[in-house]
Write a structure and sequence with these properties.
The structure holds two protein chains of two kinds. Chain A is mostly helical. Chain A contains eleven helices and no strands. Helix content of chain A is about 80%, strand content about 0%. In chain A, α2 crosses α3, α8 runs antiparallel to α10 and α8 runs parallel beside α11. Chain B has a three-stranded antiparallel β-sheet. In chain B, α1 crosses α2. Classes of the chains: A mainly alpha, B alpha+beta. Chains A and B meet through α2 and α4 of A and α2, α3 and β3 of B.
């Protein structure tokens, strides 16, 4: 087995799989290399030729190793892989997952209560409308990319710019709404003859901030949906090619 | 005429899987034995790079078409061998039927040149 230590070390470095799975695969490869070596030796080749031929037969290149990784990817890893092509390291994926999870936990109870919608600014309604449009668009794209069998490439990409535009618009309305509400509140406070308590002022700011938070939450979820749908689109394009 | 279940765009992948499952039909084998036997029985036409073999074997194992088992061979040597499961036997029998249909239809067209 020491004979093939160099090639196995290279494979070990490139094979991005968790232990003990990685060790098992390397052990399997090592055993096959040894048996191949013995097979070629029994055919009359000398040690160096047999070793070279065995290594040539194994030839685990980048594409093969990535296929091997794909076979063993867990459902969770596959989901994280779809989120971003750039977030490939374990730490980046973990950070992305933690940010989304913490945002959900901290804001979920507040956002999904009816009180959130009754005690908010008028700008929440355009954001709700945009979220509804995004939700419908996500469902349509999901159906086109995952459920429909016959994919027409020209139609697959349709709606993606609209999707991006709506994501950005959601965030802009959230931020813009906050600034306008803050400006109106500030104007009201400045023009008011009576002194206004800090509680009322901060209450007004809180109401304005709800719009921004909601816009940001919708933007985050839409972005994740965008990454997932985009990676599926690329997968289909690669298959068609 | 009954439609084929073969995945035509991924014909090479289907072909590789069918070859591997067929070799395992009559007994358990190690990975390197599968590749060598395919090469030998096809007179060199189907040459398997072992590196390509592992993703296919592991995928078939995940699909429960084959089963990988480790065996201790000597004090410091563990070897993995594969054998066909009942589901795999049924699958490869269906594949034989599908491939026969595929080549019948293929030669229906190609055979036109001899007419």
């Amino acid at each position: 087995m020491k004979r093939f230590a160099a090639i196995l070390t290279k494979i070990n470095e490139k094979l991005n799989l968790p232990q003990p799975l990685k060790s098992r695969i390397l052990l399997e490869m090592a055993g096959d290399l040894d048996d191949l070596f013995n097979h070629y030796r029994s055919q009359g080749l000398d040690e160096i030729q047999a070793q070279q031929k065995a290594e040539e037969m194994l030839r685990a290149d980048e594409e093969t190793l990535s296929l091997l990784v794909q076979v063993h990817d867990s459902g969770f890893r596959k989901f994280l892989n779809r989120l971003s092509e750039q977030a490939q390291t374990r730490w980046e994926r973990l950070c992305l997952f933690l940010v989304v999870a913490v945002s959900l936990i901290l804001s979920g109870k507040e956002i999904f209560s009816f009180r959130f919608f009754t005690n908010t600014s008028h700008f929440i309604w355009p954001i709700l409308l945009i979220s509804l449009l995004l939700f419908i668009l996500t469902l349509i794209k999901f159906y086109m990319l995952y459920i429909k069998k016959n994919h027409r490439i020209t139609k697959l990409h349709s709606g993606s710019f609209t999707f991006l535009f709506l994501c950005g618009l959601c965030l802009l309305v959230g931020v813009g709404g906050f600034l306008i509400e803050l400006y109106l509140a500030a104007s009201h406070v400045a023009s008011s003859a009576d002194s206004i308590s800090a509680g009322i002022v901060w209450g007004g700011i809180r109401v304005a901030l709800i719009t921004t938070i909601f816009g940001l939450v919708i933007f985050t979820f839409s972005s994740i949906a965008w990454f997932i749908l985009r990676s599926r689109f690329k997968e289909l394009m690669t298959k068609k090619a | 005429m009954k439609s084929l279940n073969l995945d035509i765009p991924n014909l090479t992948k289907n072909c590789n899987e069918a070859l591997i499952l067929s070799i395992l039909f009559h007994g358990k084998k190690h990975g390197y034995q599968i590749a060598l036997e395919i090469q030998e029985k096809s007179y060199g036409m189907f040459k398997f790079n072992h590196g390509t073999l592992y993703p296919i074997l592991h995928k078939l194992e995940k699909q429960n078409l084959i089963k990988g088992t480790w065996k201790q061979e000597g004090p410091k040597r563990q070897r993995k061998y594969y054998l066909l499961t009942a589901k795999g036997k049924k699958y490869v029998s269906n594949q034989l039927h599908e491939w026969r249909n595929f080549f019948d239809r293929f030669f229906n067209i190609l055979g036109e040149i001899e007419k």
